[in-house]
Task: structure prediction
Amino acid sequence: MNYFSNRPFGISSQVMPNAEVYHSENQPNQELQGEDGFYFRLLEQNGIRLNEAQWKAVRHIEGPCLTLAGAGSGKTSVLVSRTGYLIQVKNVSPEKILLLTFSKKAAMEMKQRVAMLPGINKQEANRIQAGTFHSFFLFILRSRGITQEILGNERFKHIILKQLQRKMGIQEPYQPETLLSKLSYLKMKMEPVGQLPEKTPGEKEVKKILMKFEEWKASNQKMDFDDILVKAYELLNEDQMLLDALQKRFQFIMVDEFQDTNWLQYQLIKMIAAQSRNLFVVGDDDQTIYSFNGADHSFILDFDKEFPDARVITLDINYRSNSYIVGLGNQVISCNRYRRQKNLQAVKEEQVNPQYCRPSNTDEEAEWITSKIKELTSEGDLTFNDIAILHRTASSSRAIFEKLVIEEVPFFSFNPGDQHFYDQWMVKPLVDHLRLSLVPRNFTAIEGILASLYINREAGLKFILGNEETARKKYPLIHLTKMNHLQEFQKEKVKQRIKLIKGLAAEPPATAIKQMRREFYDQFMDTNERVSVTEHKEAIKETLSELEASASRFQSISAFISFIDSMTEKHEKMQNQDKKSNTDAISLMTIHRAKGLEFPVVFVIGASEGNLPHSSALNADKLEDKVYQHTRSKEVLAIEEERRLMYVAITRAKSKLFISSPAFYQGEKREISSFLTDAFREKPLKKDKITKKESPKIKVSAWICSSDNCIAWSRIKTEADQNIKRKACPICEKRMIKGEKLVSG
Result:
């Protein structure tokens, strides 16, 4: 059965997004006849045929230049060809060229491709200074005797932060990811930790932890990747002779993926380019999706304000995707206001439309997609390697991950540590409680829940095992009530937890999880500032809601645990087989991870409101840790970044694109992503989210859900509505209260 169609469910419009087709044979070739025509003829003889915009970019020599490189528009060919042009045509010494990238792999690929250009050998290519921002500036630091060891292992940094908090006596430790993200943001803005605010106990605590971490690094002669850039910036401001030398040497500076630069990287680039002003940057503001790492697409938007004499060249011919995929991408991204206007053309005229489906939930979505993948690969033209499944968040891949494992379809998961859902740090303690409800003497599970009792795992388990040698208990947790250093209220909490575990056994697993969340776990996970709403906390709630949704498929805890164990065993077996052979496998990854990649076939899952666009964007104005560099509305900026995420996902596909929009997600009804429905309007709503946001507002009476985790509300329109005494939320069934909401007038 075919579950896919040419339009999103419910769309009756005859509009079919399609890009204009570019015909290279109509391109004039007089460019090949000039003084430098020999170089372009040599390129063509070696299979590199450039279009007119690419020629212009390659030929640009003097002064600043912004090359807007749309998705699949051949930016790497431009950077490589321009490097060769400088050496071959303009006789620039390779040592004078600095090429900065965002990955070691990209830098190596650039050098390899330059070495393959006609008239350039490997030795010349190796004389070009090509590398990542961090490797280049680390080289400079090392040349000045800075010898600190690089602290690059994220897991080790997490361990250090946890140890520091333990020494400080913090009972509810902050997640290392949150702390490191805050620290990185400060460093990329060159703002010292010592200037952090201390208005609340939580702010004081965070400031103290980060200062302790900085002290630990200094005393242990360590620096992390952010420190490399900070120290380089300080060094170049202090050592004018060094800066002069760098400016004199590097006369031609090129930056790849310019949309991913943060403030500090941009300052460093400008310092080195200040003398020659030959700064050539390549990027696409429509693919700025790393704002959480400090990336700021305003550097592209305002480049010609920063450099009034800058030349702007647009690469708008897509060589990757067919015209229908390019057309859909164009329609989706055109609704963003804050962007450089561009409308990509396509080279491929394949008559294959993107396909859409509307499964009832994520488990049905996984079933449909797995079935489609089997159909595609059974036809013989496609392998699993040709296929990618892209998802917005780690938790939204749970169902497809499970289905691929159950069906034994080979895949590589590019989530951190290749962890499956039930092993995630925020999920595992709840699963361990369920295990203890079945087997109270499961000591591995006991160790897993100790942190939720604010008891050190190692010390707590050691005490329990020691007491078990002389007094074996059915519920070994009871031994903790004899730990000398525990307060009386902690011992009482242990007794309450044992009572809770005993009561869980007869409950369905979803009910048991809801009960644990209600009684202690949500409070335990809501680290420090109870009243604040942050993106990190929202991610935790989403993950736990996904756990409930998964558990709701099972009638008993034993069935749920058996499923988890069976899936874990199967997944480990698949991983071991993959290591032994060069496995043909699907790529399962987040959209963020997929940027820069391309696949013949792409499945985009979870394209529903609240997931893509994500709830953190829809509620951005409420999130205290959602930070942008501009005074514009956080909601506007967040929605636009989500739309860029959708654009990136769409433009990863070369030939076939499938987009799925589950009707229910984590038990809640979800509409099809507005990014898709807007693309099929007769006249797409231009910046609809912004228009709605910036139009005049009026206050109206409304029923508002009392739950902090729910955003449901309904307008009170009639006198009968006003006279209702009690009303239940249609989404979460919590009590609704009367209040006021701001709406467009």
Residues 557-580 form the longest helix (24 residues). The chain has 30 helices and 21 strands.
